[in-house]
Write a structure and sequence with these properties.
This protein is an alpha/beta fold and about 425 residues long. The protein has 16 helices and 19 strands. Helix 15 links the parallel strand 18 and strand 19. Helix 10 packs parallel to helix 16. The longest helix has 17 residues. The structure holds zinc ion (ZN).
Length: about 425
Amino acid sequence: MIKQAVILAGGKGTRLGNLTKKIPKPMIKIGGTPILEHQIRLLEKYNINNITILTGYKSEIIENYVKSKKYKANVSCFKSKINIGTADRVKLIENKLKNDFLLLYGDVMLDMNFDKLINFHEQKKSSCTLVLHSNDHPQDSDLVEINEECQVTAFHSKPHKSGFYFHNMVNAGVYILSPKILKQIKSQENIELDFGKNIFPKIFKKEKIYGYNTPEYIKDMGTLERLKKVNKDYKSGKINRFNLKNKRKAIFLDRDGVINYDSDNLSNIDDFKILPRTIEAIKKINNSEYLAILVTNQPMLAKGFITFAQLDEIHKKMETLLGNEGAKLDGIYFCPHHPAKEFPGVPELRIECECRKPKPGMIMQAKKDFNIGLKNSWIIGDAERDIETGKNAKIKTILVKRNQEYFDKCAIKTKRANNLLLAVNKISK
Ligand SMILES: [Zn+2]
Protein backbone atom coordinates (compact mmCIF):
# COMPACT_ATOMS: atom_id res chain seq x y z
CA MET A 1 0.00 0.00 0.00
CA ILE A 2 1.29 3.40 -0.93
CA LYS A 3 0.33 6.11 1.52
CA GLN A 4 2.81 8.86 0.83
CA ALA A 5 3.25 11.44 -1.93
CA VAL A 6 5.74 14.17 -2.71
CA ILE A 7 4.87 17.20 -4.85
CA LEU A 8 7.63 19.16 -6.57
CA ALA A 9 6.64 22.80 -6.26
CA GLY A 10 9.90 24.74 -6.09
CA GLY A 11 10.71 25.67 -9.71
CA LYS A 12 10.40 29.10 -11.25
CA GLY A 13 8.25 28.54 -14.34
CA THR A 14 9.77 31.27 -16.45
CA ARG A 15 7.96 30.27 -19.66
CA LEU A 16 4.67 31.50 -18.24
CA GLY A 17 5.88 35.12 -18.15
CA ASN A 18 3.80 37.49 -16.04
CA LEU A 19 1.65 34.75 -14.59
CA THR A 20 4.45 33.44 -12.39
CA LYS A 21 5.94 36.82 -11.44
CA LYS A 22 3.77 36.93 -8.33
CA ILE A 23 2.89 33.30 -7.67
CA PRO A 24 4.68 29.97 -8.08
CA LYS A 25 3.45 27.71 -10.89
CA PRO A 26 1.53 25.22 -8.71
CA MET A 27 -0.66 28.11 -7.51
CA ILE A 28 -1.94 28.88 -11.02
CA LYS A 29 -5.66 28.31 -11.02
CA ILE A 30 -7.58 25.86 -13.16
CA GLY A 31 -11.32 26.38 -12.91
CA GLY A 32 -10.73 28.79 -10.01
CA THR A 33 -8.66 26.34 -7.93
CA PRO A 34 -4.84 26.12 -7.76
CA ILE A 35 -3.33 23.09 -9.51
CA LEU A 36 -1.71 22.18 -6.21
CA GLU A 37 -5.13 21.97 -4.57
CA HIS A 38 -6.45 19.77 -7.39
CA GLN A 39 -3.50 17.44 -6.80
CA ILE A 40 -3.96 17.28 -3.03
CA ARG A 41 -7.67 16.50 -3.40
CA LEU A 42 -6.93 13.79 -5.96
CA LEU A 43 -4.34 12.19 -3.67
CA GLU A 44 -6.77 12.29 -0.74
CA LYS A 45 -9.36 10.53 -2.88
CA TYR A 46 -6.95 7.59 -3.18
CA ASN A 47 -6.19 7.55 0.54
CA ILE A 48 -2.69 8.98 0.22
CA ASN A 49 -2.57 10.46 3.69
CA ASN A 50 0.92 11.86 3.92
CA ILE A 51 1.83 14.60 1.44
CA THR A 52 5.06 16.61 1.39
CA ILE A 53 5.26 19.68 -0.83
CA LEU A 54 8.80 20.62 -1.82
CA THR A 55 8.89 24.40 -2.18
CA GLY A 56 11.50 26.91 -3.32
CA TYR A 57 10.39 29.84 -5.47
CA LYS A 58 7.90 32.02 -3.51
CA SER A 59 7.71 29.31 -0.89
CA GLU A 60 5.73 31.43 1.61
CA ILE A 61 2.73 31.67 -0.74
CA ILE A 62 2.38 27.90 -0.82
CA GLU A 63 3.05 27.56 2.93
CA ASN A 64 0.38 30.13 3.79
CA TYR A 65 -2.09 28.54 1.44
CA VAL A 66 -1.64 25.09 2.93
CA LYS A 67 -1.91 26.53 6.47
CA SER A 68 -5.21 28.17 5.58
CA LYS A 69 -6.76 24.84 4.52
CA LYS A 70 -8.05 21.86 6.42
CA TYR A 71 -7.04 18.55 4.86
CA LYS A 72 -7.84 14.97 5.73
CA ALA A 73 -4.28 14.10 4.79
CA ASN A 74 -1.25 15.29 6.68
CA VAL A 75 0.12 17.98 4.33
CA SER A 76 3.46 19.63 5.05
CA CYS A 77 5.93 21.86 3.20
CA PHE A 78 9.69 21.56 2.97
CA LYS A 79 11.61 24.53 1.64
CA SER A 80 14.89 24.43 -0.25
CA LYS A 81 16.70 26.86 -2.56
CA ILE A 82 15.26 27.72 -5.96
CA ASN A 83 17.94 26.64 -8.39
CA ILE A 84 18.22 22.98 -7.59
CA GLY A 85 17.37 19.89 -9.62
CA THR A 86 14.14 18.00 -9.00
CA ALA A 87 16.00 14.85 -7.98
CA ASP A 88 18.24 16.87 -5.64
CA ARG A 89 15.15 18.36 -4.02
CA VAL A 90 13.68 14.93 -3.27
CA LYS A 91 17.06 13.68 -2.05
CA LEU A 92 16.94 16.35 0.70
CA ILE A 93 14.01 14.61 2.40
CA GLU A 94 15.33 11.08 1.92
CA ASN A 95 15.08 10.42 5.66
CA LYS A 96 11.30 10.99 5.52
CA LEU A 97 10.79 8.51 2.70
CA LYS A 98 10.98 5.03 4.17
CA ASN A 99 8.48 3.36 1.82
CA ASP A 100 7.52 3.59 -1.85
CA PHE A 101 5.91 6.95 -2.65
CA LEU A 102 4.19 8.82 -5.46
CA LEU A 103 6.00 11.76 -7.00
CA LEU A 104 4.12 14.53 -8.82
CA TYR A 105 5.29 17.69 -10.54
CA GLY A 106 3.31 20.62 -9.15
CA ASP A 107 2.63 22.14 -12.57
CA VAL A 108 0.86 19.06 -13.95
CA MET A 109 -2.90 18.93 -14.18
CA LEU A 110 -4.03 15.35 -13.95
CA ASP A 111 -6.81 13.03 -12.98
CA MET A 112 -5.92 9.38 -12.86
CA ASN A 113 -6.90 6.20 -11.11
CA PHE A 114 -3.98 5.91 -8.67
CA ASP A 115 -5.33 2.56 -7.39
CA LYS A 116 -4.70 1.02 -10.78
CA LEU A 117 -1.22 2.56 -11.04
CA ILE A 118 -0.28 1.41 -7.53
CA ASN A 119 -1.55 -2.10 -8.29
CA PHE A 120 0.63 -2.23 -11.39
CA HIS A 121 3.66 -1.05 -9.40
CA GLU A 122 3.09 -3.67 -6.71
CA GLN A 123 2.34 -6.55 -9.08
CA LYS A 124 5.52 -5.87 -11.04
CA LYS A 125 7.53 -5.56 -7.80
CA SER A 126 8.88 -2.46 -9.50
CA SER A 127 11.51 -0.30 -7.85
CA CYS A 128 10.41 2.60 -10.00
CA THR A 129 7.31 3.05 -12.16
CA LEU A 130 7.02 5.78 -14.76
CA VAL A 131 3.64 6.86 -16.05
CA LEU A 132 3.75 6.94 -19.85
CA HIS A 133 1.38 8.17 -22.51
CA SER A 134 1.30 9.12 -26.16
CA ASN A 135 1.00 12.86 -26.77
CA ASP A 136 0.58 15.23 -29.72
CA HIS A 137 4.18 16.49 -29.65
CA PRO A 138 6.41 13.41 -29.18
CA GLN A 139 9.18 14.99 -31.29
CA ASP A 140 9.95 17.43 -28.46
CA SER A 141 9.22 15.09 -25.54
CA ASP A 142 11.38 12.68 -23.53
CA LEU A 143 10.58 9.22 -24.88
CA VAL A 144 10.81 5.79 -23.31
CA GLU A 145 10.79 2.27 -24.74
CA ILE A 146 9.30 -0.72 -22.93
CA ASN A 147 9.22 -4.46 -23.63
CA GLU A 148 6.21 -6.84 -23.49
CA GLU A 149 6.50 -7.00 -19.70
CA CYS A 150 6.42 -3.18 -19.63
CA GLN A 151 9.98 -3.02 -18.37
CA VAL A 152 11.82 0.08 -19.58
CA THR A 153 14.50 -0.80 -22.13
CA ALA A 154 15.58 2.60 -23.44
CA PHE A 155 15.39 6.34 -22.82
CA HIS A 156 15.48 8.90 -25.61
CA SER A 157 15.82 12.40 -24.20
CA LYS A 158 15.05 15.34 -26.45
CA PRO A 159 16.44 16.33 -28.88
CA HIS A 160 16.19 12.90 -30.52
CA LYS A 161 18.77 11.39 -32.83
CA SER A 162 17.81 12.25 -36.38
CA GLY A 163 17.17 9.52 -38.93
CA PHE A 164 15.47 7.23 -36.38
CA TYR A 165 11.85 6.35 -35.73
CA PHE A 166 10.44 6.20 -32.20
CA HIS A 167 7.34 4.94 -30.44
CA ASN A 168 5.11 7.73 -29.18
CA MET A 169 5.69 6.75 -25.55
CA VAL A 170 6.25 9.86 -23.50
CA ASN A 171 7.43 10.15 -19.90
CA ALA A 172 4.45 11.94 -18.35
CA GLY A 173 6.32 13.00 -15.20
CA VAL A 174 4.35 10.98 -12.63
CA TYR A 175 6.40 8.38 -10.77
CA ILE A 176 6.25 5.81 -8.01
CA LEU A 177 9.69 5.49 -6.48
CA SER A 178 11.14 3.16 -3.93
CA PRO A 179 13.62 4.63 -1.44
CA LYS A 180 16.44 2.66 -3.01
CA ILE A 181 16.22 4.86 -6.12
CA LEU A 182 17.08 7.86 -3.93
CA LYS A 183 20.32 6.17 -2.92
CA GLN A 184 21.42 6.46 -6.56
CA ILE A 185 21.21 10.25 -6.50
CA LYS A 186 24.64 11.79 -5.99
CA SER A 187 24.01 15.50 -5.71
CA GLN A 188 26.83 17.82 -6.77
CA GLU A 189 27.41 21.57 -6.81
CA ASN A 190 26.43 23.32 -10.05
CA ILE A 191 24.60 20.36 -11.58
CA GLU A 192 20.80 20.18 -11.41
CA LEU A 193 19.79 16.53 -11.43
CA ASP A 194 16.46 15.58 -12.95
CA PHE A 195 14.98 12.08 -12.65
CA GLY A 196 14.02 11.70 -16.31
CA LYS A 197 17.23 13.14 -17.71
CA ASN A 198 19.99 12.24 -15.28
CA ILE A 199 18.85 9.48 -12.93
CA PHE A 200 16.66 6.92 -14.75
CA PRO A 201 18.78 6.65 -17.92
CA LYS A 202 21.78 5.83 -15.70
CA ILE A 203 20.15 3.18 -13.53
CA PHE A 204 17.55 1.37 -15.66
CA LYS A 205 19.94 -1.44 -16.49
CA LYS A 206 20.50 -2.38 -12.85
CA GLU A 207 17.20 -1.36 -11.23
CA LYS A 208 13.87 -2.69 -12.49
CA ILE A 209 12.06 0.30 -13.95
CA TYR A 210 8.60 -0.21 -15.43
CA GLY A 211 6.41 1.91 -17.66
CA TYR A 212 2.67 2.24 -17.05
CA ASN A 213 0.87 3.40 -20.18
CA THR A 214 -2.39 5.27 -19.71
CA PRO A 215 -4.70 7.48 -21.80
CA GLU A 216 -5.80 9.45 -18.72
CA TYR A 217 -5.48 13.23 -18.61
CA ILE A 218 -1.99 14.39 -17.64
CA LYS A 219 -0.80 17.76 -18.95
CA ASP A 220 1.87 20.16 -17.78
CA MET A 221 1.32 23.88 -17.67
CA GLY A 222 4.56 24.72 -19.46
CA THR A 223 3.19 27.42 -21.75
CA LEU A 224 0.29 29.89 -21.85
CA GLU A 225 -1.21 28.01 -24.77
CA ARG A 226 -1.28 24.74 -22.81
CA LEU A 227 -2.70 26.53 -19.80
CA LYS A 228 -5.58 27.81 -21.90
CA LYS A 229 -6.24 24.33 -23.26
CA VAL A 230 -6.23 22.79 -19.79
CA ASN A 231 -8.73 25.36 -18.51
CA LYS A 232 -11.00 24.56 -21.43
CA ASP A 233 -10.71 20.82 -20.84
CA TYR A 234 -11.44 21.31 -17.16
CA LYS A 235 -14.60 23.28 -17.88
CA SER A 236 -15.82 20.62 -20.30
CA GLY A 237 -15.35 17.91 -17.64
CA LYS A 238 -12.92 16.02 -19.88
CA ILE A 239 -10.14 15.83 -17.30
CA ASN A 240 -12.29 13.89 -14.86
CA ARG A 241 -14.09 11.87 -17.53
CA PHE A 242 -10.78 10.46 -18.75
CA ASN A 243 -10.01 8.87 -15.36
CA LEU A 244 -9.86 5.09 -15.97
CA LYS A 245 -12.55 4.61 -13.33
CA ASN A 246 -14.94 5.95 -15.98
CA LYS A 247 -15.85 4.09 -19.14
CA ARG A 248 -14.48 5.56 -22.37
CA LYS A 249 -15.63 5.02 -25.92
CA ALA A 250 -13.23 4.07 -28.67
CA ILE A 251 -12.80 4.04 -32.41
CA PHE A 252 -10.91 0.89 -33.41
CA LEU A 253 -8.92 1.25 -36.60
CA ASP A 254 -7.66 -1.38 -38.96
CA ARG A 255 -4.14 -0.63 -40.23
CA ASP A 256 -3.44 -1.62 -43.83
CA GLY A 257 -5.80 0.15 -46.21
CA VAL A 258 -7.14 2.45 -43.50
CA ILE A 259 -4.07 4.20 -42.06
CA ASN A 260 -1.46 3.25 -44.67
CA TYR A 261 -1.48 2.13 -48.29
CA ASP A 262 -2.10 -1.61 -48.37
CA SER A 263 0.81 -3.10 -50.25
CA ASP A 264 0.35 -6.86 -50.26
CA ASN A 265 2.20 -8.48 -47.38
CA LEU A 266 3.87 -5.37 -46.13
CA SER A 267 7.23 -6.35 -44.72
CA ASN A 268 9.59 -3.69 -46.07
CA ILE A 269 9.48 -0.56 -43.92
CA ASP A 270 9.99 1.62 -47.01
CA ASP A 271 6.63 0.43 -48.33
CA PHE A 272 4.83 1.82 -45.28
CA LYS A 273 3.21 5.08 -46.41
CA ILE A 274 0.37 6.95 -44.72
CA LEU A 275 -2.80 7.43 -46.78
CA PRO A 276 -4.01 10.97 -47.52
CA ARG A 277 -6.39 12.52 -44.93
CA THR A 278 -5.41 9.89 -42.32
CA ILE A 279 -3.58 12.30 -40.06
CA GLU A 280 -6.44 14.79 -40.16
CA ALA A 281 -8.85 11.96 -39.30
CA ILE A 282 -6.81 10.68 -36.35
CA LYS A 283 -6.35 14.21 -34.99
CA LYS A 284 -10.08 14.58 -35.14
CA ILE A 285 -10.48 11.43 -33.03
CA ASN A 286 -7.80 12.70 -30.62
CA ASN A 287 -9.74 15.91 -30.07
CA SER A 288 -12.99 14.05 -29.45
CA GLU A 289 -14.10 11.86 -26.54
CA TYR A 290 -12.99 8.69 -28.36
CA LEU A 291 -9.81 6.70 -27.91
CA ALA A 292 -8.00 5.82 -31.16
CA ILE A 293 -6.98 2.17 -31.02
CA LEU A 294 -5.29 0.15 -33.73
CA VAL A 295 -6.31 -3.50 -34.18
CA THR A 296 -4.45 -5.31 -36.95
CA ASN A 297 -3.91 -8.90 -38.09
CA GLN A 298 -0.24 -9.48 -38.87
CA PRO A 299 -0.11 -13.11 -40.07
CA MET A 300 3.22 -12.30 -41.74
CA LEU A 301 4.75 -13.01 -38.33
CA ALA A 302 3.35 -16.55 -38.25
CA LYS A 303 4.35 -17.10 -41.85
CA GLY A 304 7.90 -16.08 -40.99
CA PHE A 305 8.01 -13.25 -43.55
CA ILE A 306 8.65 -10.62 -40.90
CA THR A 307 10.08 -10.64 -37.36
CA PHE A 308 8.61 -8.98 -34.27
CA ALA A 309 11.52 -6.53 -34.39
CA GLN A 310 10.74 -5.58 -38.00
CA LEU A 311 7.07 -5.07 -37.21
CA ASP A 312 8.09 -2.93 -34.24
CA GLU A 313 10.20 -0.74 -36.55
CA ILE A 314 7.24 -0.33 -38.91
CA HIS A 315 5.05 0.73 -36.00
CA LYS A 316 7.71 3.17 -34.83
CA LYS A 317 7.67 4.68 -38.31
CA MET A 318 3.87 4.92 -38.20
CA GLU A 319 3.89 6.58 -34.77
CA THR A 320 6.67 8.99 -35.78
CA LEU A 321 4.91 10.05 -38.99
CA LEU A 322 1.66 10.57 -37.10
CA GLY A 323 3.36 12.26 -34.14
CA ASN A 324 5.26 14.72 -36.35
CA GLU A 325 1.87 16.04 -37.43
CA GLY A 326 0.31 16.01 -33.95
CA ALA A 327 -1.71 12.77 -34.26
CA LYS A 328 -1.53 9.79 -31.89
CA LEU A 329 -2.85 6.30 -31.29
CA ASP A 330 -3.83 5.49 -27.70
CA GLY A 331 -3.24 1.78 -28.15
CA ILE A 332 -1.79 -0.65 -30.69
CA TYR A 333 -2.88 -4.29 -30.78
CA PHE A 334 -1.77 -6.84 -33.35
CA CYS A 335 -2.43 -10.55 -33.85
CA PRO A 336 0.75 -12.42 -34.84
CA HIS A 337 -1.03 -15.72 -35.47
CA HIS A 338 -2.24 -17.67 -38.47
CA PRO A 339 -3.83 -21.11 -38.28
CA ALA A 340 -2.89 -22.56 -41.69
CA LYS A 341 -0.27 -25.27 -41.35
CA GLU A 342 0.83 -25.53 -44.97
CA PHE A 343 3.78 -23.16 -44.57
CA PRO A 344 6.15 -23.97 -41.76
CA GLY A 345 6.89 -20.36 -40.70
CA VAL A 346 6.95 -19.99 -36.93
CA PRO A 347 5.27 -23.12 -35.46
CA GLU A 348 4.25 -21.57 -32.12
CA LEU A 349 2.34 -18.83 -33.97
CA ARG A 350 0.55 -21.34 -36.18
CA ILE A 351 -2.45 -21.59 -33.92
CA GLU A 352 -6.16 -20.99 -33.82
CA CYS A 353 -6.06 -17.96 -31.52
CA GLU A 354 -8.65 -15.68 -29.96
CA CYS A 355 -7.23 -12.44 -31.34
CA ARG A 356 -7.20 -12.89 -35.11
CA LYS A 357 -10.00 -10.83 -36.66
CA PRO A 358 -12.89 -11.50 -37.17
CA LYS A 359 -12.60 -12.78 -33.61
CA PRO A 360 -13.03 -9.88 -31.20
CA GLY A 361 -10.05 -10.78 -28.94
CA MET A 362 -8.04 -7.61 -29.52
CA ILE A 363 -11.08 -5.44 -28.89
CA MET A 364 -11.86 -7.36 -25.70
CA GLN A 365 -8.29 -6.92 -24.48
CA ALA A 366 -8.43 -3.17 -25.17
CA LYS A 367 -11.80 -3.01 -23.43
CA LYS A 368 -10.17 -4.44 -20.33
CA ASP A 369 -7.00 -2.32 -20.53
CA PHE A 370 -8.79 0.98 -21.14
CA ASN A 371 -12.19 0.38 -19.50
CA ILE A 372 -13.98 0.85 -22.82
CA GLY A 373 -17.74 0.87 -23.09
CA LEU A 374 -18.45 -1.06 -26.29
CA LYS A 375 -21.97 0.21 -26.75
CA ASN A 376 -20.85 3.55 -28.17
CA SER A 377 -17.65 2.32 -29.82
CA TRP A 378 -16.86 1.80 -33.50
CA ILE A 379 -14.56 -0.11 -35.81
CA ILE A 380 -13.40 1.30 -39.13
CA GLY A 381 -11.85 -1.14 -41.60
CA ASP A 382 -11.48 -1.79 -45.30
CA ALA A 383 -12.38 -5.50 -45.28
CA GLU A 384 -15.46 -7.58 -44.59
CA ARG A 385 -13.42 -9.22 -41.81
CA ASP A 386 -13.22 -5.91 -39.93
CA ILE A 387 -16.96 -5.44 -40.13
CA GLU A 388 -17.51 -9.00 -38.88
CA THR A 389 -15.12 -8.25 -36.02
CA GLY A 390 -17.26 -5.26 -35.12
CA LYS A 391 -20.41 -7.34 -35.22
CA ASN A 392 -18.77 -10.02 -33.07
CA ALA A 393 -17.74 -7.40 -30.53
CA LYS A 394 -21.17 -5.75 -30.75
CA ILE A 395 -19.82 -2.36 -31.77
CA LYS A 396 -20.77 -0.10 -34.66
CA THR A 397 -19.00 -0.46 -38.00
CA ILE A 398 -17.87 1.55 -41.02
CA LEU A 399 -16.34 0.05 -44.16
CA VAL A 400 -13.88 2.34 -45.96
CA LYS A 401 -13.14 1.95 -49.64
CA ARG A 402 -10.16 -0.23 -50.50
CA ASN A 403 -11.09 -0.14 -54.18
CA GLN A 404 -14.35 0.25 -56.03
CA GLU A 405 -14.64 -3.41 -57.02
CA TYR A 406 -14.26 -4.72 -53.48
CA PHE A 407 -16.49 -1.99 -52.11
CA ASP A 408 -19.30 -2.93 -54.52
CA LYS A 409 -18.85 -6.67 -54.07
CA CYS A 410 -18.84 -6.59 -50.27
CA ALA A 411 -22.50 -7.16 -49.40
CA ILE A 412 -22.23 -6.99 -45.62
CA LYS A 413 -24.60 -4.55 -43.96
CA THR A 414 -22.69 -1.59 -42.59
CA LYS A 415 -22.17 2.15 -42.87
CA ARG A 416 -19.65 3.04 -45.59
CA ALA A 417 -17.23 5.87 -46.37
CA ASN A 418 -14.68 6.61 -49.08
CA ASN A 419 -11.80 7.23 -46.66
CA LEU A 420 -10.94 7.39 -42.98
CA LEU A 421 -11.68 11.10 -42.60
CA LEU A 422 -15.14 10.75 -44.09
CA ALA A 423 -15.72 7.73 -41.85
CA VAL A 424 -14.73 9.69 -38.73
CA ASN A 425 -17.01 12.53 -39.83
CA LYS A 426 -19.93 10.10 -39.76
CA ILE A 427 -19.36 9.41 -36.08
CA SER A 428 -21.02 11.94 -33.83
CA LYS A 429 -19.10 13.39 -30.94
ZN1 LIG B 1 -4.03 -14.04 -32.67
